[in-house]
Every structure is written in structure tokens, then in C-alpha cells.
Amino acid sequence: MTDTETRTRTVHLRPDLPLTFTETGPADGRLAIVLHGGGGPATVQGIAAHLADRYGMRGVVPTHPGWNGTERPDWLTGIDDLAIIYLHWLRDEGHRDVLVVGSSLGGWTAAEMAFRDDGAVISSLVLVNAVGVTVPGEPVREIFGVRPDEIAAYSFHDPARFAVDPATLTEERIALQQANMASARLLAGDPYMHDPKLLNRLGRVRIPALVLWGESDRIVTPAYGRVYAEAFARGRFETIAEAGHLPHVERPEATFAALDAHVDAHAGAGSTPGQGSGVPSVGGGVRL
Fold this sequence. Notes:
about 290 residues, alpha/beta, Rossmann fold, 8-stranded mixed β-sheet, 9 helices, 8 strands, hydrolase, Alpha/beta hydrolase
């Protein structure tokens, strides 16, 4: 695979909703949509590039509305809204056999998408240190109002490797980070980082789901991740040693090896009708 040049495009799903996508790989490759967390699309570009390079996939990284200066319509106020608009985009473009990968907040979005996918668009799911559910005794650590260096200390196995001197940040960069955090708070701040109904719904998701977890994550613990994986009908849990909340950044080789094993194990499986919850669909195959 040699076509790893990235391209950016914006589509209007509706007049007030421009969606910006960064794409890697051949335009006719199997689609892999890779969903970022609060840190923005740059944190998951490596996953999309890897899938394009190794498998010839079309790796697509959307910028969630409100991140990196993009527009967010007033009605888009929750992760469920985010999941629905991405499913609408997949359906509108006629995609099938889609691999969905999500990191942190993006993992929550991916799980919500899988539950709502009555149209059998998604065939495989990978969650990386995802938030989005309630696990007794394993709360998601509070990040809003916390200094960036504290968040880094909770996020990485080796925070010193990823330390950024605040004095080196431009005013524009600081403003962008603050705006991204404000968007995360708006979508996931109340209730904090979870949908209270999601965990009980995931048993109706019948596509294969890999839940990857950095062992040193102190934002969301491995114990939380194990419960998440067990909620899926075909879930599997795997840890990445010496990695925290972003194992694909901290230990990409180990993370990609686990990702590849999942992709290889389910290659060509496709998706089957009725993979969701059995709840009647609304709006052409997307559960609201």
C-alpha cells in the first residue's frame, strides 16, 4: 500500500452542519472511521494511517463539530447526536462493512453508533480506553477545570515523554485547547462522561467488539474497560502494557498489533441485519 497521502474535505450533512474529514488511503478502500477524543483529531491520525498502509483501507478521521475551530450547531448537544450524524453520513454515502475505531470520547461515540446501527452498516468495532458507561466503583476521573499537566500525569504511563512546556504554547494554541475542552464539556459534561443507559444496551450489539486498554490509564481504569467489554455480546478485552489513556500514541506498535489481530480475525465477515437491539429503527435505519 503506497497511497498514504492525506486529504481534507468538508461535506454538509445539512445546511447548518458542515463536517470536516481527513482521509488517508485509497478512495475505493474499505472504510475505517476513526473517532477522536477530547484531544482532537491529531491524536488518532496514526491509527487511520496504519489501517490505510497495512490494509489499503480508506481511513477517515472526522473532526467532531466544535473541535479545532469547526462549527457546531446549537442542537448538537450530546454524544448521541454525534453518533447519529456519523451514522447518517455513512448511510447517505452508501457505506457497508465499516470498521469503527474510537478513542476515549470517540470510543463512547462508536459504542453509541453500534447500538443504533439498525442498517447493518458497521461490521466491526474497536474501542480504545473509551468512556461512556457507568461502572460501580470505577468513576471516570474529572478532567474539566484540571490543569493540562495534571491531565497528562493521569493519562500517560510515562508523562515525562509527553510533557509540554506551557511557555512554548502560542496564544492561538491555548485558545484552541480551551475551545476543544469547552466542546467536550458541552457534549459530555452532564451527566459526566457517560450515558446511564448505554451499558445495558450493549448486549444487543452483535458485531465483534475489541476493547483495548492502556494498563496505566488513571482517567478510566482497566477494571472499567473490562466491564465495558463484557457488556458486548461478542466483546473481547485486551490490555496494552506500559501505556495509559492513549496507548496508540504511547505504544503504537503493541496497539496496532492488537488492532491487526482483530481486523484479521474478522476480515470479510461483514455485518448482518438485526445486529442491533431489535428496537424499531427511526429515520432509515438509525435508532434515536
